[in-house]
Write a structure and sequence with these properties.
The structure holds 2 protein chains of 2 kinds.
Chain A (H helix, E strand, L loop, with lengths): L3 E4 L2 E4 L5 E7 L7 E6 L6 E5 L3 E2 L7 E6 L2 E6 L9 E6 L11 E5 L1
Chain B lengths: L2 E5 L3 E2 L5 E8 L8 E8 L6 E7 L4 E3 L7 E6 L4 E6 L8 E9 L4 E4 L3 E5 L2
Parallel strand pairs in B: 2-11
Antiparallel strand pairs in B: 1-3, 3-8, 4-5, 4-9, 5-6, 7-8, 9-10, 9-11
The chains are: A mainly beta, B mainly beta.
């Protein structure tokens, strides 16, 4: 199985900050990487697919980059509604594994 | 607007079989571009991909669960189902059904249903 390691696991930031979350794959996955945001008690929401393509309806302050084994999710200016847990997922090969999650909290 | 809704028992006894159904409305699951998937999340923990099915019936399972999992599809009812046999407390989780857009990700999700394994 392909392992995904997210860093950091916890992140404390303020409204207006720029934050970056990294996802590293244990082997190359081309650009078959998706990012999700999950708020407490809710289903995950797809933010980014194919490593860098913004899902329809997702604010442009979210962006993704990377290819191969290293990927990043950036939020350019944090808004109050952005505080949540973020997960990456690889869809290069079965089983489609997820990272362990990054919890973004308000400082 | 596509909607997915999980249904099934919220409590299952150890060693029994967990059975859930996902009903899709607002669109057809018989699409060449999409798969139907199941993902679970134990309380307070991360996401685990269980498996997915194509409308033709082709299935893909997580090897960690493969011997216990069966996913099936009923295109006439626009539903797909999950069966997980020989459950233990470790299978207690919120179970989500989701539409998987090929290798691009899960773009529509059900609200999730908590299944507790307990006697």
């Amino acid at each position: 199985d392909i392992q995904l390691t997210q860093s950091p696991s916890f992140l404390s930031a303020s409204v207006g900050d720029r934050v970056t979350i990294t996802c590293r794959a244990s082997q190359g996955i081309s650009n078959y990487l998706a990012w999700y945001q999950q708020k407490p008690g809710k289903a995950p929401q797809l933010l980014i697919y194919a490593a860098s393509t913004l899902q329809s309806g997702v604010p442009s302050r979210f962006s993704g980059s990377g290819s191969g084994t290293e990927f990043t999710l950036t939020i350019s200016s944090l808004q109050p509604e952005d505080f949540a847990t973020f997960y990456c997922q690889q869809l290069n090969s079965y089983p489609y594994t997820f990272g362990q999650g990054t919890k973004l909290e308000i400082k | 607007q596509l909607q997915l809704q999980e249904s099934g028992p919220g409590l299952v006894k150890p060693s029994e079989t967990l059975s859930l159904t996902c009903t899709v409305s607002g669109g057809s699951i018989s699409s060449t571009s999409y798969y139907c998937g199941w993902i679970r999340q134990p309380p307070g923990k991360g996401l685990e991909w269980i498996g997915s099915i194509y409308y033709s019936g082709s299935t893909y399972y997580n090897p960690s669960l493969k011997s216990r999992v069966t996913i099936s599809v009923d295109t006439s009812k626009n539903q797909f189902s999950l069966k997980l046999s020989s459950v233990t407390a470790a299978d207690t989780a919120v179970y989500y059904c989701a539409r998987q857009h090929r290798q691009l990700g899960h773009d529509y999700w059900g609200q999730g249903t908590l299944v507790t394994v307990s006697s």
